[in-house]
Amino acid sequence: MTKQPTVGPSDSSRYEIRLAGHLDSRWAAWFDGMTLTRADDGSTVLTGAALDQAALHGLLRKVRDLGLPLLAVTHIDPDPPHTSTRRPADPSKDAT
Amino acid sequence: MVPRSRLHERLGRLDESSLAVVSAPAGFGKTTLLTEWLASLPAQQRSVAWLSLDQRDNDPALFWTYLVAALRTAAPEMGAGTLALLESTPSSLDAVLTTLANDLSGISGDLVLVLDDYHVIEAREVHDGMAFLVEHLPPQVHLVIAGRADPALPLARLRGRGDLVEVRAADLRFTADEAAAYLNGSMGLTLTTGDVAALEERTEGWIAALQLAALSMQGRDDPADFLAGFAGDDRYIIDYLTEEVLQRQPAQVRDFLLRTSILSRLTGPLCDAVTGRDGGQAMLATLDRGNLFLVPLDDHRRWYRYHHLFADVLRVHLQAEQPDDVGGLHQRAGDWYEAIGDPAEAIHHALAGGDVTRAADLVESALPALQQGRQEATLRGWLEALPDEVIRVRPVLSVGYAGALMVRGEVEGVEARLRDAERWLTTTTTTASGQRSPASPAEMVVVDQAGFRRLPSAIAMYRAGAALLSGDGAGTISHARAALDLAAVDDHLGRGGAAGLLGLAYWARGDLDAGHRWYADAAASLEKAGHLSDVAGCALGLADIRIAQGRLREAMSTCERVLQMVSPETGPARRGAADMHVAIAGVLLERGDLEAARRHLATSTDLGEHAGMPQNPYRWRVATARLREAEGDVDGALALLDEAERRYVGDYFPQVRPVPALRARVHARQGRWADALAWAEERGLSAGDDLDHLREFEHLTLVRVLVARFAAEGDERCISGAVRLLERLLPAAEQGGRTGSVLDALVVRALAEQARHDLPAALVALRRALTLAEPQGYVRVFADEGRPMAVLLRAAAAGTVTGYARRILAALAPGADSAPVLVGLVEPLSARELDVLRLLGSDLDGPDIARELFVSVNTVRTHTKNIYAKLGVTNRRAAVRRGEELDLLARPRDHRPEHAGTPDR
What we know:
The complex is a heterodimer of chains A (96) and B (905).
Chain A: E1 14-20, E2 35-38, E3 43-47, H1 53-66, E4 70-76, H2 80-85, H3 91-95
Antiparallel strand pairs in A: 1-3, 1-4, 2-3
Chain B: H1 5-12, E1 19-23, H2 30-40, E2 47-52, H3 60-74, H4 80-87, H5 93-105, E3 111-116, H6 124-135, E4 141-147, H7 155-160, E5 164-168, H8 169-172, H9 176-186, H10 193-203, H11 207-217, H12 223-231, H13 237-247, H14 251-260, H15 268-275, H16 280-289, E6 294-296, E7 304-306, H17 308-321, H18 326-339, H19 343-352, H20 356-372, H21 376-385, H22 388-392, H23 395-407, H24 414-426, E8 428-430, E9 436-438, H25 449-469, H26 473-486, H27 492-508, H28 512-528, H29 532-548, H30 552-565, H31 577-590, H32 594-607, H33 616-631, H34 634-646, H35 659-669, H36 673-682, H37 696-713, H38 716-735, H39 739-755, H40 759-773, H41 780-783, H42 787-797, H43 802-812, H44 831-840, H45 846-853, H46 857-871, H47 876-885
Parallel strand pairs in B: 1-4, 1-5, 2-3, 3-4
Antiparallel strand pairs in B: 6-7, 8-9
Helix pairs in contact in B: 4-5, 9-10, 10-12, 11-13, 15-16, 15-18, 18-19, 19-20, 20-21, 20-23, 21-23, 23-24, 23-25, 24-25, 25-26, 25-27, 26-27, 27-28, 28-29, 29-30, 29-31, 30-31, 31-32, 31-33, 32-33, 33-34, 34-35, 35-36, 35-37, 36-37, 37-38, 37-39, 38-39, 39-40, 40-42, 42-43, 44-46, 45-46, 46-47
């Protein structure tokens, strides 16, 4: 089984959003101050502060509204070794 | 215009489907395709309702209002009921949707309903409502949903059963042929096949991009340079091309485009206000002619909007080039909207321009209208957009926030908002001149002075409501009293609300006299405020209380009076009329007049759901279940009770006759005591419980269940426990003046004693019950008990209370009470008609007869007409004479014929 980074429904986390096409940096404000990086392959990568799920979906809606093809949304694991050792608490143990 | 017959053909399949989805990103020509397709249909063949959605339509109240308004443009005869329902208070979405589905099925001829830009809808409630509507669309109504995202509807299921037409981006994109037709035809360019192919490839058939490219090339001598630069560029295509187009515009046009890009809709005067220049309408006309992405919103070309994609790019350019001006532009737009009286747009611009103070001012002013229009979702949206510190210094807005929470039954957060407001009230000092001045005037903000004056009362009332919702009766009473003391004499709505809460609290704790008094006060205040439907809501409570007190006549007269109030002579019945018919049917049923009860229940249904308050769906089912049981259809009764339980809406009323308990009674009477016992266990009821008014009906039900079990099993412990519980219940009900419960207890006591073969004790209880019940004409409380009761009644009838007991016996054995078969009559008179005929022989006039029989004057009139027809006469005197000849005037109580055809005289 591959280990999935754990993101809870109320967690904020950093994401990398890759779009097809080069976006001018003046669009940074449109995307609430995200940093736009233009890659050689013709795509643009949006990065920025940690977002919770609602903010992430709001951002994706803005992408949709521009008609820009979405290539990837990647969760950036802040501290990979740490999370890999973390286990979810076993509630049955607390109960006893 | 590029002909797109392949897509028209596909949309044509909507004939056999209920839904078409047109899903593609912005700029793929969704709206254009639909407009052209609809225009291509023969005009007489199909009517079209079109609704373009925007953000504000996430408020369900607005969404359904606009949707019905759009439908009415195509089918003016429909939707009146739905609109009435949406305007009245408080509307239940279920009722709105069922009424709407009914209205739609009444439409003759095919109708296409288009919902454009559906992707802006995020409200879960709207999606759920649409899912219901899609499932209940009549075959002649076809729905088209267009947007940038697939709608949150069960598309896979529709697709699976071939009930879905889909047009997606891959279908919408221009093919090379279509691109050539568009560029060289419509746009008047002269491009080579190679040029067209290059453009088609770079834009991937994205129509908005092709359109921008064409605009960039218009007037160029040689498009080759442009094409070369365009094809070799990776930039976001719309951004790149918009820049090209903007560069080719005169400075004035370019400036106009950027500055007006903040507007979601454009019209000349608004543009002038925002740009600070004249000639806005002429500019719009020029842009329209130049195909610069203006979409006309009306036939007169007065209102436009920019194409969304273009507007987004313009806004980004505006932000990048004139960042300091954006706030000012929004402010001027907001001023303009405020001046023309559109607070919603004014608030939108104040928020978009970051002027939260002004937005808060506007929201506060708009508060009363929003509350009256039940636009809670809109209000919530604005309040949530405002920073908390802005709301907290505005007491009127803080209390408005509490109200918005309470409307949805949310108690959490209410108290904090009320305290925020109260802070300002307690620091307010009274100066020598008697004028109130806040202790720290620099901080508190009040825009709505009248609203501010109502705050002390409003705060107390919301506290009372929150207390009631959390089951705190004492708290409800003290806060509601405070609210009443603080309310101005002419604040009828405020006084009505507070009195109503007091009535509910007293009723819930079993003080029926106080409950009735306060509730009557509430009804009087609400009548003064002109809220007649709410008066009907109060009448439901008043009738419930009177029935609990065993005062059927008063319950009846309350409902009849309010029924007249909500049934205008002309026009549709007001909301609440359906409830009054159900309440009247309930009393008639109790009195054993099944025929009349049936009629009132049918009338309630005929009036439609929009004539009913939130409780009516469940109350109608409870009453109808009782009728079914009386008719002998037990399964039908149980099924209706199951439905009633599902549709139960308490609406702040105490749950004094819970539906599951009603069902347990039916079970007990049917000998299904195990099912009934399971209910009692689930409710945690036992014979040793402490008494509580709110559980009285359940405890009386438990006793019935235990008696039924004893009758079946003979377990002595059950019956002794039951009798002990009864011995506590009876005095409690007597003390509280709850004669309805006293009767109930005496009847079950009689059954219990009978079950343990103590006939004298049973008869003592029964005779007491009969004495109490006779003046009010109770029948079903006895008759519902079936055979065991019949045996007892026969024994009792041998004694002193014969006439009344015989009447109940007649109701117990269906058929025994039918009219005598009489020689000389083609059609016999019904029992009710016989009653009326007898009274026609007296001195009483019409209204007196109506009162005597507990029916309306109109009902007496109808009976009289039928009597004349059956007797072949035309006036009262002749009817009485003919009645005497046929021996129909025997006095009902003393000489009631027990068997058809053998009048005992």
